[in-house]
Amino acid sequence: MRIPCPLCGARDLREFTPWGDAALMHRPGFEAGPEAAHAYLHLRENPAGPHRELWYHELGCAAWLIVTRNTLTHEVLGASLAMDDRTGGASPAGDYAPGSPAGDSQASGGRT
């Protein structure tokens, strides 16, 4: 499987680390309450078909990507930089990427 990195071009799957549902980028803030935290941590969609996922280009440019992949066929339908994505969540706390503090420029775009 090859993933079309917007910065590096089509690259082998082994250069990337999958992090799961792209909804991870939209962590609720503390003011959202325990129900929102529970939903963020434990309630995830598991769709059969096109799905937006968060991937990290670990052995390449270190960018966070939103990869749209068909979970039935594993066909990659597209990829974009996570820093350019502002859809899929309504977090008052802003965007978040695992392993980086919220608001960090590396959280959604790569090394600075």
Give the secondary structure arrangement, pairings included.
Elements: E1 2-5, E2 9-12, E3 17-21, H1 34-42, E4 50-56, E5 64-70, E6 76-81, H2 106-109
Antiparallel strand pairs: 1-2, 3-4, 4-5, 5-6
How would you sum up this structure, described in words?
The protein is mainly beta and 112 residues long. It has one domain (2-84): Folate-binding fold (2-Layer Sandwich), CATH 3.30.2270. The protein has 2 helices and 6 strands; from the N terminus they run βββαβββα. The chain has helices at residues 34-42, 106-109, and strands spanning 2-5, 9-12, 17-21, 50-56, 64-70, 76-81. Strands 3-4-5-6 form a 4-stranded antiparallel beta sheet. It is globular and about 40 Å long. Mean pLDDT is 80; it is low at 88-112. InterPro entries: SoxD, SoxD_sf. Pfam families: SoxD.
Report a brief summary of the structure.
InterPro entries: SoxD, SoxD_sf. This protein has 112 residues and is mainly beta.
What features would you highlight for this structure?
mainly beta, 112 residues, disordered C terminus, Folate-binding fold, 4-stranded antiparallel β-sheet, two-stranded antiparallel sheet, 29% strand
